[in-house]
Amino acid sequence: MKIVSVSLAAILLFFGSILGGCASMDAHVTPVYTVEPGKKSPLSTIPSLAVSIQVEDQRNQFELDRVGNKKNGYGQNMAKVIPDKPPADILRDALKAEFEANNHKVVAPEVSQADALVKVGLKRFWSEATIHFFDIEMVATLETDIGILNGTGQDKLLSKPLTSTFRDSRQYAGEGAFEDSLKGALLEYVRTFSRDPAVLDALKASSTRK
After folding, report:
1. Element (H, E) at 140
2. Phi, psi of 19, rounded to the nearest 5 degrees
3. Structural domain range at position 181
4. How many domains in the chain?
5. What are the beta bridge partners of residue 121?
6. Keywords on this record (predicted)?
7. What percent of the chain clears pLDDT 90, i.e. is strictly above it?
């Protein structure tokens, strides 16, 4: 029994070390979406629009100050994973970059000349590390409700949930692992948004009403 207990303690100590540095210290992350130069998405097939983007943070109150938790080898929460920028701003900047890279203009929500208004309710932006016997699995999720309106009025062209998930397996899970997984979820979200048939149809409808 003593040998088993010592072995178990050694395993837990090992997993505590591969979860990255001091588990009791908060991790700071800056997940950013970067457009590949010269690469276009199906958004480029829509005639140029003036688009307003509004992102409202509607996350669970217990997650508003973080985008994940650092855990020790026992799976206990030890510290926060804190974004250096508000998640709503991170998502808005990502969508703005994607629209602009595909020949659209992003304008402030109060500008009356907008052809389309994209309203996003951010439900969750979260990264989790799960310890398996031979590796650590990082899973990040980005969950939203989106609406697309014609201009800045209330003529709603689309309303639907839109989510993305990113999974990664690695041997070590420091701060960079959380940032990479959140960035992966953000990238997948923008990719899904810019290729979603319902999103494209709603934006095309906005272009025909200009």
Report:
1. strand 136-150
2. -80, 5
3. 2-208
4. 1
5. 56, 145
6. Signal
7. 60
